[in-house]
Amino acid sequence: MVIGETQSAMHDPREQYQLLGIDRLAEKFGAGFRALDLSEDRVVRVRVPRPHALKEVELPEKVSKADILINIHTKHPPSNNDPYPPEPASENPHK
Q: What is the C-alpha to C-alpha distance for residues 24 and 60, in angstroms, rounded to an integer?
């Protein structure tokens, strides 16, 4: 199993793996479990089946060869340096 992440302007995968404890999970489960920076992987062009806008996309090779891909987006509390903090919840006038 591979947990993969790519670099962004705000986050480094290795730092995030350490912060979230994913690096410790990888050590605990051994060779069958890896946490990778997919920014370091070779990029391949992949054809999009039944394309709407793009006929091809560039992906990290490990992503293109995965048997199963699970994409997880998490909402987390904003940090002090978050350039896009969530807007505060508005009061519901119909209560």
A: 24
Every domain of the chain and the residues it spans: 2-64
**Sequence letter at residue 14:** R
User: By three-state DSSP, how is residue 35 classified?
Assistant: strand
Looking at the chain, the whole-number percentage of residues with pLDDT higher than 70 is: 76
State the pTM of this model.
0.64
Could you tell me which residues come within 8 angstroms of residue 16 by beta carbon, excluding any fewer than 6 positions away?
A: 5, 22
Side chain identity, residue 9? A
Residues near 43 by beta carbon (within 8 Å), at least 6 away in sequence = 58, 59, 60, 61
